[in-house]
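User: I'm curious whether this sequence folds into something compact or stays loose and floppy. Could you predict its structure so I can see for myself?
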Amino acid sequence: MRRYARQYDDSSCGPIAILNVIKWAGYRCTIKNDLKHIKKLCGYYENRPRGVCPDDLDRVLRLCGRRFKFEVRRLTVFKVKDIIKHLRNEGVVVVDYGYKKRKEVYIHNAILVAVSEGDIFTGINFFRNKTISKLKIKKLKEYCRCYTLDGGVTYEYPVAWFLTKY
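Assistant: Here's the prediction. I'll summarize afterward.
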């Protein structure tokens, strides 16, 4: 099994997702040697509280796809069943979902979703300071649509990139 990287701060989820995609594609990539360059490609700033915007993530994923031999499809309307089907065909999916709590600033998180085992997915960099997490289908569904919870947490603007090696 590949050794994926995890995020150690509040805003580098996008660059970490890209680093993990490169690892998934079968290439050597490390936080120590490559993360700084990936952050630069993304237009990432250490003091930028919301990290990398989806358009920059898209641009860098496509650039990496050409270099590391994988196809990229960006979807803004998708369902969990689309993710399951793609994973069964040996692809991976980067899901970028946004959320905010009541009147706080909009925050987003990008995770790499790989390997489906029935109703359980492997979430790479899903929880901070944890590299690999088991992600239940119910939780993944929350990130794939727009809605507001009773506690005032609003999930919005889900985007997914379906990646396939060639």
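Summary: The CA atoms of residues 22 and 67 lie 10 Å apart. The chain has a mean pLDDT of 84.
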